[in-house]
Input
Amino acid sequence: MSPIEPQKALVGKTAIVTGSSRGIGAGIAIELGRRGANVVINYTSPRGATAAQQVVKTLESGGSKVASVQANVAVVSDLQKLVDAALSISENKKIDILIHNAGSGDDCYLADMTEDFYKKQSDINLKAPIFLTHLCLPHLAQGGRIILLTSVSARLGVPQQTVYAATKAALESCCKVWATELGRKHGVTVNCVAPGPVATDMWWDSDPALLADFQPIIDSTPAAARVGEVADIVPVVLFLCSEESRWVTGSVLSASGGMTFIG
Ligand SMILES: NC(=O)c1ccc[n+]([C@@H]2O[C@H](COP(=O)([O-])OP(=O)(O)OC[C@H]3O[C@@H](n4cnc5c(N)ncnc54)[C@H](OP(=O)(O)O)[C@@H]3O)[C@@H](O)[C@H]2O)c1
Output
């Protein structure tokens, strides 16, 4: 039997990538398509609508089926739209790959914390992955993959990241619970990819004080003294989508140039 071309290993699979109009999510979506998957693209803002069109064009030109969905992941009723879109493009009415990528990276010192800030950020970063996974459960394919984008911030202790760091740490806990709770029952693996700083809008829109607080950590990053690129993160996520990752579950893969060795 001839081996499947790695480039086409995901033919017939259907993926949802939240927050896939820009940044890391767009990179993941395009690579999933390049490997043959059908993909649900998600955005929430008018800016995202324009960016999403470009991602859709790229995927369609490669032959993937694509659904582009405006949905605010913080709103549970919007999450059903993502599930419905996935089922509409899935040949076997199953969802094979679920990538929880949409995130809010807003910065806030504890002294300035408000209930509104807490709710807004934690609804996007934590509530959304919990309820979207819940909605996908009846439709998950055997051999399915759930991947959560977390962050080295979960354990670095950088100022202004109270809610951001806490929600990312919470996702890493969810990952371990779901690996056990869903693993055998649904035949899925559940893993996290934890990037360090990556050159996307989220990073460059950060408070200058946060960028300054991160600089010494960047300067001492073991692999290279630089911020990561989307292309550094995408292959790690794609590995976790592959058949070859079948024995990896409940793990947090640091994609940070080794940043997590520090601190
Ligand atoms: N960049 C970094 O330095 C870094 C480091 C570690 C971890 N991460 C994590 O990696 C993931 C992706 O980050 P990124 O840097 O690629 O972000 P980004 O460039 O800011 O892009 C964010 C994406 O999420 C979408 N989004 C935001 N809020 C949403 C909502 N409420 N509902 C639906 N979609 C929403 C955006 O859609 P619109 O275009 O419509 O706004 C956009 O597609 C996040 O989970 C982030 O925490 C990033």
Q: What stands out?
A: The pocket of NAP is lined by residues 18-25, 42-45, 47-48, 51, 72-74, 101-105, 124, 149, 151, 195, 197-198, 200-203 (CB under 6 Å). The chain has a mean pLDDT of 96. The two ends are 49 Å apart (CA to CA). The CA atoms of residues 208 and 214 lie 10 Å apart.
